[in-house]
Design a protein that fits this description.
The chain is built from 11 helices and 13 strands. The protein is of the alpha/beta class and 399 residues long. Helix 5 packs parallel to helix 6.
Length: 399
Amino acid sequence: MKTHIFQAHSMAAAVAQVKAHLGPNALILNTRTLRKGGLLSRSRRQLVEITAAEDSLTCPAEFHAATPPAPSQQPHSPQPTTAGRVRLPSTDVPGWLQQDQTPGKIASLSDDRLKLTPSARPAQSPASTPLPSGISTLLESFLARHIAESLANELLRDLPSRLDLSSEPDADPLLNRIEKLIPTSGPLQPGLPGKPRIVSFVGPTGVGKTTTIAKLAAQYKLQRNTSVALLTIDTYRIAAVDQLRTYADIIDVPFSAVLTPQELSRQLAHLSDHSLIFIDTTGRSPNDHLRLAELRSFQQVLGSHQTQLVLAATTAYPQMISAIEKFSLLGIDQLLLTKLDEVISLSPVLNVFASLASGRMNASAIPLSYITAGQDVPDDIEVASSRDLAARILEEHRD
């Protein structure tokens, strides 16, 4: 494999050189910062050096799970490959607050009121209040996009018959109802040196936990100058360890892979002078009770910490509810929703929010912390906004 060296005044400019000379499938093998000129010289300047090569390796499905959207004008950040190297991304796509969740409190969901119906039109029961005829088309749109029939009726009941979704939605009563259904937490709050904020990320396989952690770590370290450390207990996948180590090297934060709960405890003590410690975990099937119990043994040594359940927006409603139920064994504090760029419609996610809010799962609404849309690090992640999500969902039903 022939390697090439590129130098520029910024990472973005160096990456642009790599892409221009080697194409979008180039692999970044090494990055380092150089300083030219004497220590006290006025001409002293910093350069970024990238060693790269052409390669055709395929990234894991976690990074390229769908057909990429149209590229934007934003500079791209590097991403890891299965070999622990960094692949240049070819695309760019533009809260739930911590609560006292008792592990295992979420009961089995069998809520007939939220049962999805394939029918395009609701069968109005004699006891139900008829919907205004002016919004029947909107009701059909809700049902066609798999919003539960009972939820659709509840959202639309008693609304003005001339509801106009083609206008600006700021004062729209329907927007307000959808917004209230989606609790959010705001951004993560770092701890203090000696008392760091410890955040573990759990969830099913393939939802993008490792990439999400890299995005958050890069944002807090590079944009907020927060002291961050990364740990992983995902030692089942060598590629995942290499990926997170590569990200840690690029943003210059400590990284360690641990094999046992005892080793995890020692590493946490060693890293206690940091403000944020992110812990990556092995993706687990919600039905793998043995592995979930094993994961819980690691979490029991964390002390005071926060658990983020990472779910893909592309996951079907029953599977998403099942994941919330099963991972509740670990104590879910916040939800984090990934792959919004891959969903055809975000409307079905409302069923999940409604199920949590209904109390049928013996849990109060779990707040949504962040959403991700794309693979670029650190760009394609943002703090969840109930207003923005409600507006996006409502936009799906405009003429």
